[in-house]
Each structure stands twice: as C-alpha cells, then as structure tokens.
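Entry 14. Ran structure prediction on the chain below.
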Amino acid sequence: ERRFEETFGLGRKGFPPPQRRFAQAALSELLGGVGYFHGRSLVQSPLREQPLPAPEAALFTAVPSRSFFPRGFLWDEGFHQLLLARWDPALSREVIAHWLDLMNAEGWIPREQILGEEARAK
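Output, structure tokens:
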C-alpha cells in the first residue's frame, strides 16, 4: 500500500479507501496479465492463397485477458504502459522493447500478435 500511494498519490488526492482499493486491484490485474509468448504468426501473402508462417518471434506483453485473448494487441499496450510505466519503468521498457523487436523492415508492427498454437486456438 505504501509503494502504491507513493507512486500514484490517490490518498493525497482525496480518493476514499474503497476507490483506492479498487485502483490497487486494477493494477494487480494488469500485472497479472503480463505474459511471455513465443511462436510464429501466420501472415497472408498476396502471392499465395493460404497464410504462411512468419519467423519465430517472442513477445513480453500485457494482455486484456490471458484466458480469452492469449496474445498481444499493440493498441491496448499503449494504454497498459500508461500505468505500468509509472509503477515499474524498467518493466515497461522491457515490454516496449519486445514490441519494437517485432517491427519489420518497412517499419510496420502488426497490431495483433498471435504467436503459437495456444493463441491461435482462442
């Protein structure tokens, strides 16, 4: 609780205890949704009818729901990092570095990373 208050200052800002507990639970859920995924995405080529497996990739990311969406979403990650960067800047930099490692030669990062069989099964 002390670190949470030092980081976010909700008590100083006048938030009542139930709202502070809710905020702590939200941070806990976010941290619990951080995971490491590894595998190959499927990429559609204009030259082929069926998608092709991309090179193996790894992604350390926060996900909206590990049980329903075991894959990374670039759009969501931006919002996750607003909170995570304040809580643990080093962890945030690690997540961002993984996303940047997925950038292709044209500078494009696919918005959704479906890496491996588990992610494709959902």
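Strands lie at 34-39, 42-43, 52-53, 57-62, 72-73, 112-113. Will compare against last week's run tomorrow.
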